[in-house]
Amino acid sequence: MRIALINPNTTASMTDTAADAARRVAATGTVILPLTSKMGPVSIEGYYDEALAVPGLLMELAAAEKDGVDAAIIACFDDTGLDAARALAAIPVIGICEAAIATTSFIAQKFSIVTTMGRSRLPIEHLVHRYGASSRCKVRAADIPVLSLEDPSSNARERLRAEIAKALEQDDADAIILGCAGMADLTEQLCQEFQVPVIDGVACAVKQAEALVGLGVRTAKGNAYAAPVRKPYKGLLEGFAPEALC
Amino acid sequence: MRIALINPNTTASMTDTAADAARRVAATGTVILPLTSKMGPVSIEGYYDEALAVPGLLMELAAAEKDGVDAAIIACFDDTGLDAARALAAIPVIGICEAAIATTSFIAQKFSIVTTMGRSRLPIEHLVHRYGASSRCKVRAADIPVLSLEDPSSNARERLRAEIAKALEQDDADAIILGCAGMADLTEQLCQEFQVPVIDGVACAVKQAEALVGLGVRTAKGNAYAAPVRKPYKGLLEGFAPEALC
Amino acid sequence: MRIALINPNTTASMTDTAADAARRVAATGTVILPLTSKMGPVSIEGYYDEALAVPGLLMELAAAEKDGVDAAIIACFDDTGLDAARALAAIPVIGICEAAIATTSFIAQKFSIVTTMGRSRLPIEHLVHRYGASSRCKVRAADIPVLSLEDPSSNARERLRAEIAKALEQDDADAIILGCAGMADLTEQLCQEFQVPVIDGVACAVKQAEALVGLGVRTAKGNAYAAPVRKPYKGLLEGFAPEALC
Amino acid sequence: MRIALINPNTTASMTDTAADAARRVAATGTVILPLTSKMGPVSIEGYYDEALAVPGLLMELAAAEKDGVDAAIIACFDDTGLDAARALAAIPVIGICEAAIATTSFIAQKFSIVTTMGRSRLPIEHLVHRYGASSRCKVRAADIPVLSLEDPSSNARERLRAEIAKALEQDDADAIILGCAGMADLTEQLCQEFQVPVIDGVACAVKQAEALVGLGVRTAKGNAYAAPVRKPYKGLLEGFAPEALC
Amino acid sequence: MRIALINPNTTASMTDTAADAARRVAATGTVILPLTSKMGPVSIEGYYDEALAVPGLLMELAAAEKDGVDAAIIACFDDTGLDAARALAAIPVIGICEAAIATTSFIAQKFSIVTTMGRSRLPIEHLVHRYGASSRCKVRAADIPVLSLEDPSSNARERLRAEIAKALEQDDADAIILGCAGMADLTEQLCQEFQVPVIDGVACAVKQAEALVGLGVRTAKGNAYAAPVRKPYKGLLEGFAPEALC
Amino acid sequence: MRIALINPNTTASMTDTAADAARRVAATGTVILPLTSKMGPVSIEGYYDEALAVPGLLMELAAAEKDGVDAAIIACFDDTGLDAARALAAIPVIGICEAAIATTSFIAQKFSIVTTMGRSRLPIEHLVHRYGASSRCKVRAADIPVLSLEDPSSNARERLRAEIAKALEQDDADAIILGCAGMADLTEQLCQEFQVPVIDGVACAVKQAEALVGLGVRTAKGNAYAAPVRKPYKGLLEGFAPEALC
Which UniProt keywords are given for this protein, alphabetically ordered (chains A, B, C, D, E, F) (predicted)? Predict the structure, then answer.
């Protein structure tokens, strides 16, 4: 089984981090194919970056499907371009926020997502609502820049810990989802420290992709996810015409 | 007052149709500036087309704002790229689906949207849910290709009428929203025929834009709509880096 | 275009304040006709006052419609008698709470209403729910008597400011709606001070009324807003029989 | 125990019908005091009639409370003026729609309300939503004038039966609430015929009033139901000033 | 009228406490028959105890119905086995949480449940949601062991009081429901102290049972509450085969 | 990895059918341990059977966990005793309805569950609501006895097909979940026939169990799923005292 792990931003080092997290949980026989978008923002912070990340993501997805991968993961916690990706591809496509929520719902009645930047909170809250988890999942932001997690001199990890503590105290949360692909390596340590399940979305998405491929199901194409209608695309994005891309 | 009317698909004739609808209701002193996206699909049918239409839309929006327009309208019923547009611009940005629902809510307790193609139904249903109108607004599709509305030999208008009749009978609807910019010229005739308010989104959006400009309010930039963070954009979309575009 | 601005309480000075707010934003050519109810409470604080304010409001509305106005605004933040008014009249009738929520939804994902007295909080919360905005709009009360806003020796404005500050900190609010017609003159100052959009319902209602009249739409009379059935009315309210009033 | 049964319309014969239904189920020792509003419409059909029925209802309620009754029932299925009545009185006030829904919820997972006129359907649907029963209770109208139920030559009863049959087939309903005080005498016969519980709101309200009085609880006055603030009332409604009425 | 009051745990002294509360409010002529489950846990704290308490509860219910009682109450605040009980019996079966919420909704717009142990909070929150009261009822736990309420040396009552005070301050609550059968004797005292209605579920359930019996309605058996299908039961629970039990 | 597949009814042949479905999709290295409850009903049809099936299910679960299995599946579509099972065990416990909904949500925006008997429809609808899928998942019953699926002379399969056809036409469904463990062998054939994904809950549960074990997560025990408090259990169910069972 081959699973494409598509980083929708254009920073290859972030792809590597996500690929590490993916490989740690992948089953024997599952091959993780990390792919980095070739066009768009170097990181995704808010709606504008997200919108501009979609074309590059779709291009990687189309190429990966042609290449015969069995499923694809979108490795950004805002589930960038998920609907468009499902319309484009026939293979299953998994968002990491969606996968984390679905997975955590099997082990906890209430849980909280702790993300990095404040401006990502509302978009993630919209996802939680869309996935039907509003009554069991709150969203918090630790207000830390993503990159600062790597920087030992910053107090980023302390702020993350403080926000997790608040979630456990104030939200009835029995489990924590880390709302950023870049936090995956902290999972085990935080789980030990707080003695509650601490969940990483990339890992969940790998297992959900394996599940769908194992079941032999693919995206239902009957309605909103029907394949794109063939038609001309113009200008800079000419190459995205469905007949060209698929 | 100058209002940019941005057609997010790349077909100029559709821009003209929307501009006609806009000018019919614009107040004295309101100038409608019709703009057609220069890149992306020639029409928007489903999530894939929608995603690829966003960059072209944002480019027109950035240029229009630099040029000093007071507000902008996104002239496609799926409210293409609305969140990204609001993050990018400081001027008010109005979606035509959103404007139609907000406006109709002042005159009817229940109403239905009748759109063209079946595959657009679920995305519009998601918009209705997001705008908080699920309990008062149903969405129907007449299953007609957009362009067939122009073709006198097709039975498109009969199917549209039949679907409106069903909405009035089965949905408790007291008013009808036409869920496609290309239907704007039918408004008056259908209103006469069915003796209920028949609403066009482009017209509503013009009046909502005039309202916001008249009130002197602009998009709240404190949180999810904060201006894009300056950062490099790569590859084909390099030109969309916030410092380049804005 | 002539818009009736009906104050449903019987205090003419409050009508004047609302009329000032209305005229500040009215378009050239829009005439604001301020009307004060001739029967009922001198101010509306809670459900009892509200119920007794409705007959006087309806009487002004009937007279204004006969007189040929194009639309009517109910100038009290509890949207007093809105359903009955829409059943009675064919012209559009706008509530100021409803107008403020619809308008603010175009520029902010989350916002809060700050009203004066605690006992008004729950009724407004019910309106927010009815208008489909529960997930994006919280309601707060500054616990100040309406009239104290005018009194320089009271600390009313400080309490209002304190409550706005809490809304911005605790509610994810990116914009503030002032939940009382008597606060309209504070809009600009508070907007400067807090650097977020601060919205007044009367102003929004004027623009929404202009929008509906400009579109040529009127209340849909097919169902719950059908014209009152002709029938005898008895006792003190005899004069309200539909054949007498309309 | 004395329970005021207030008919908010001004037709005494309807009060008699409701009083019969009430007495059939009243416990030994419960005295039903039927009261007919002295001002307003002769029947309540839609929002306009409802609004004009409230003052007369409140006047009867105030007099009954002064007179020492233990609880009051509002005998119209749109729960006319319920919030204002609860703010005015300290004794428990029960709406018959509210009572029917609360009572039926103890014996059926899903049920439907069958009312008379189409224009009453949406207002009742709003009540169902407010009482938290939207997911278990549908509302249907048999489209019959209230008075025709008394007329043996009309087909009103057949239409009522047909609508009940549809509710049982199409709504998953396991019980039926008759959505009009004037249908109370049909309960037993319809129950026999359809072999499901058929519920009358007046009867339910009597038992709920007995329950509240038996428990010794009264309306909570801390917030939205706080007693009306003393203040002048003007014009025709001068007599409704709280200090005059209470 | 005879009402079975079934304590689903196996501790007879708790049955006595509930029976006292029931008898305090029972109407003249209502006989309370207290019954204690003969199998299962000595107290119900969480989902596991609850599940194991159901068979014993059902056995008492079947015997009571054979014996001719008119209605039954399940005297535990998690409404233990309510659906199974309604499927088994034809007489009305009332849960005390359900009864408390239905009753309190007639006298307060918002209220809070204060229960004992933290682990009971989420199950009660699910009940509140199921009964349609989520928007008007919050659930709090005082984090006290049930039995400590009886112990004068513990600070249990102080913690209960503190939690009630928080509910009144932070939840908009105008009334309090005590979320544990063992608190019934505190009702009057707390009501005096906090000057708001303080409600006990057992008392409410008695009055609701009287109401249903007085109306002559029984559980609707058409669908989810249809009588159990006759079939073999095996092993330890052989005696629960419907033909054996009913 | 060893996964206990617990049939909560006492009919071993049904366990075999579920075990076949489970083994068809289990990964290499996953061992399925089929277990049949030793006490309770031979099949689960409605709330009464469900309640009596829980003790036997919990006994198998406790034994399996002691025996060292890694996860457990409850192989009945009403997710029998799921909350009690999660409180009892530390290993992940998966319901097949829950697993089917979570899995299908990754590949279809809307889908329908088609179950066998009408009386199971409402309980499944409650599960759908609890899992947050009400807006995307409808529940239908083909009104066929479970065992008739095995009988070639019955028209059970035709009725199942007819109900699936209705779901695709009337519910916007793009995928079908078969709402009964006994239908698992029909999946492939129906998928071919209707050309939409047809999903079996047992298969989904196996993959979700593998996912959770692969991730190393276990049930969060902090709150509603905390381990049962040690206490005496009496009578027939004495053996279920937590200290005896766990």
Answer: Isomerase
User: What pLDDT is attached to residue B152?
Assistant: 75
Distance between CA atoms of residues A147 and A154, nearest Å: 10
The distance of D84 to chain C (nearest Cα, Å) reads: 4
Is B132 strand, coil or helix? coil
pTM listed for this prediction: 0.96
Please state the rounded mean pLDDT for residues C211-237: 96
Mean pLDDT of chain D: 94
| Pairwise CA distance, residues D205 & D211, whole Å | 10
Beta bridge partners of E35: E6
* Domain F98-200 in CATH 3.40.50.12500: yes
Give the residue among B245, B148, B158, B200 at the shortest CA–CA distance from B23: B200
With an 8 Å Cβ cutoff, the interface of chain D facing chain F consists of: 109-110, 135, 172
Predicted confidence (pLDDT) per residue in E7-57, tens digit: 999 999 999 999 999 999 999 999 999 999 999 999 999 999 999 999 999
F71-83 tens-digit pLDDT = 999 999 999 999 9
Q: Distance between CA atoms of E141 and E121, rounded to whole angstroms?
A: 6
Under CATH, which architecture does the D2-96+203-245 domain have?
3-Layer(aba) Sandwich (3.40)
The 3-state DSSP class for residue E169 equals: helix
**Which chains does A contact via 3+ CB–CB distances below 8 A?**
B, C, E, F
| Distance between CA atoms of residues C162 and C177, nearest Å | 14
Question: Helices B121-130 and B96-104, interaxial angle, to 10°?
Answer: 60
Query: Looking up tokens 């569950």, which residue turns up?
Result: F113
Mutate: best of A120, A122, A137, A140, partner C, most C CBs <10 A: A122
Q: CA of B169: how far to CAs of B161, B194, F13, in Å? A: 12, 11, 50
Is there a common fold for C2-96+203-245 and C98-200? Answer: yes
What's the CA gap between A140 and A178, in Å, rounded? 10
Q: Where are the alpha helices (DSSP H) in chain E?
A: 12-25, 47-66, 82-88, 96-104, 121-130, 156-170, 187-194, 201-215, 242-245
Q: Shortest CA distance to D224 belongs to which of B184, E89, C141?
A: C141
Domain E2-97+203-245 has CATH 3.40.190.10: no
Q: Which residues contact F195 (CB under 8 A, 6 or more apart)?
A: none
- Chain B: give the shortest CA distance to residue C113, in Å: 15
β-pair partners for D40: C234
A60-98 burial string, b = 16+ CB within 10 Å, else e?
bbbebbeeebbbbbbbbbbbbbbbbbbbbbebbbbbbbb
For chain D, counts of helices (H) and of strands (E): 9, 10
Kindly tell me if the per-residue pLDDT of C24 is higher than 80: yes
Q: Cβ of A103 and F217 within 8 Å?
A: yes
Mean pLDDT calculated for residue range C50-70: 98
Q: Does domain A98-201 have CATH number 1.10.760.10?
A: no
Output DSSP code: residue D235: G
Residues of F in contact with D109 (CB under 8 A): 122
Q: Please give the pLDDT value at position F46.
A: 92
In chain E, what are the domain boundaries? Answer: 2-97+203-245, 98-200
Partnered with residue D33 across adjacent β-strands are: D4
Residue type at C240 in one-letter notation: F
Helix A96-104 to helix A201-215 angle, to the nearest 10 degrees?
Answer: 80
CA distance B196 to B173: 9
- Please name the chains neighbouring F, where neighbouring means 3+ C-beta pairs under 8 angstroms: A, B, D, E
Confidence of residue B184 (pLDDT cuts 50, 70, 90): confident
pLDDT (tens digit per residue) in D212-246: 999 999 999 998 999 999 999 999 999 999 998 87
Q: Which residues in chain E touch residue F238, judged by CB atoms under 8 angstroms apart?
A: 39
